[in-house]
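Subject: for your reference before the review

Hello V.,

The reviewers asked for a structural picture of the protein, and I figured it would be easier to keep everything in one thread rather than splitting it across files. Below is the amino acid sequence we used in the manuscript, unchanged from the supplementary table.
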Amino acid sequence: MTGRWTYRTSAAGVLMLAAAAFTLSYDALHQLALDSHVRPALAWLWPVVIDGTIVVALLTVLAAKRAAARGGYPWALAGLFSLASVAFNVAHAPDRPVAQLVFAMAPVALVLTTHLLMQQVGWRRPAPGPTAPGAEHQAGPEPAHPHRPGDHPAPEPAGPDRTAPVGARARVRAAYETQVAAGQTPTGAGLARTTGVSERYGQRLLAEFTADPTRAGQPNGDRPIGGGQANHDFERR
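And here is what came back from the structure prediction:
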């Protein structure tokens, strides 16, 4: 027997019992209304007001529980009309203890079965599962001020390697100039380790700077690398 089948079967049983209890209580209250000279055309409303208020009040308690709100007033209303229903059913019963107990059972069963159905609905509600690290950030609401074009400077183009970090080209270029000025022979792997870029990107920029030394030495178009190398060689002489 699966859990879903058990839930559906018990829920159907509770609904059937609640309907039976409501029918018995309705008949007693309807007869009491007729005996109290309520117009026959309106007498059917009397049991609806009494027992219907009980059901609505208990459902309101469930709604308040789910909304994490106070349910004192719905509980008080359900208790008051439950006592009224029991009293009116007993008043309609013959003047014998057993008969009065028989008539009192219907409204009591209506209250208990309705409350039992509320509990089953509450158990059916899924419990919150554990939140994976970072899931709250991924599934959270969008920021109140979403990013718009111009909020942050766009990363400078990094050539064919789109995964290079912002400013990587300038760092590789500066490392290349420093090594050349020191009389060293730059390599793609060495530039990559020094500047924190991928070796492929370092080799690509090294090939570009080696093929066009003027471009490598002119980050702003005003300082050729040749002059710095010539001055260094002249000082060494």
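For the response letter, the relevant points are probably these. The chain is about 70% helix and 0% strand. Residues 131-139, 149-162, 216-237 have pLDDT under 50 and may be disordered.

Happy to draft the paragraph if you're swamped.

O.
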